[in-house]
Request: fold
Amino acid sequence: MTVVMGWWLIGGLGAVGMLAAVVWLARTGRLGGGDFVIRLGPGSRVQVTGKIPRSKVPGIAGFFQDQPGEMPRGRIVGTFGPGGTPRLWFSATIAPALRQRARNFLIEHLR
Reply:
């Protein structure tokens, strides 16, 4: 009886832990629940969705299309923090140098 109760306890704690992790990922924007998403595709495809003014979209697309080298496939998820400053999360396929340039550009461009 105690072994069965122990397994139920472990299973219950695991389920609660998984639920807490999903809620945390969704609230921080890492589960795709951000205010906006920028998808980089093959060639020079840039798709911007979410709470970004339409007037800003051509500038964002132009920034990524003007980067040296081939554009990586990937996704940038952003949420607007205090004061309207964007918080950004990048796919692992986006190089660190491009991440930094994009972060600098988007913080200035989306103010």
Remarks:
- The chain is about 45% helix and 20% strand.
